[in-house]
Design brief:
Length: 224
């Protein structure tokens, strides 16, 4: 390697093989209870939970460690209503003819339609933006790399952190979603990538049976 400033890798725990397997399995059990939620309670959630989860997301790996993400957290009723209205305009077009029949058929087991009441019910809508340019220091205007991949990984961390805090999430992707820039006061150079709906699960909420069908290991992995 070329010379560069370093610090020691903080020691990871020395575990027995059995303990590693048990921990990996326990994590799988815990994360497997996470499902996309479309029935949220309007119960408030402390902002500090969201802050800690976003800080966890901010530790994700990214191209050249430029951390090309921004999380705009909508919590005001007025902004939530505006987002819902804009999203529903697009969803009406999507379900009203823009989407291919194949896509509509694929969504049938989820029971989704153009009405998105949870966009107003849930306490937080985290709008996630990718930055094509930036860098690590304030005011940097450097090229960023692997923005989509980096933001995707950070979003995974965010979802996992919120799940660990006992909160439900829904990844929502209005199409197109450029309206999010104006709504969230973000510069046009940023790419809106996802809305993460966050809150407590509503009493007697259900999930589609379809969502419980996960592929077995031999269909998602191979050993070479
Ligand atoms: N954005 C629409 C449609 C939709 C698309 C996919 I791919 C999904 O996994 C779920 C929904 C909606 O939110 O209804």
């Amino acid at each position: 390697m070329k010379p560069h400033a370093t610090v020691p890798y903080e020691a990871l725990p020395e575990l027995s093989d059995a303990e590693r397997i048990a921990r990996a399995s326990a994590f799988r059990d815990a994360i497997a209870t996470r499902h996309s939620c479309r029935m949220f309670s309007d119960a408030p959630v402390p902002r500090a939970v969201i802050e800690q989860a976003i800080l966890a997301a901010g530790t994700a790996p990214s191209g050249a460690n430029h951390q090309p993400w921004h999380f705009a957290v909508i919590e005001s009723a007025a902004k939530k209503r505006a987002l819902r209205e804009a999203a529903e305009v697009e969803e009406r077009e999507f379900y009203g003819g823009k989407a291919s029949q194949e896509w509509i058929d694929a969504l049938a087991p989820l029971g989704t339609d153009e009405t998105k009441p949870y966009l107003e019910t849930a306490p937080y809508l985290i709008c996630i933006f990718g930055q094509r340019r930036g860098g690590i220091d304030p005011g940097d205007d450097k090229q960023n790399y692997y923005v989509t991949e980096s933001v995707g990984i950070a979003t995974g961390y965010l979802i996992a952190a919120l799940h660990a805090a006992g909160l439900a999430t829904l990844t929502h992707t209005p199409n197109p979603m450029k309206f999010l820039n104006a709504l969230c006061d973000r510069p046009g150079s940023e790419k809106p990538m996802m809305v993460l709906v966050v809150g407590k699960v509503a009493d007697s909420a259900t999930i589609p049976l379809h969502a419980t069908h996960k592929k077995p290991l031999d269909r998602i992995a191979s050993w070479l």
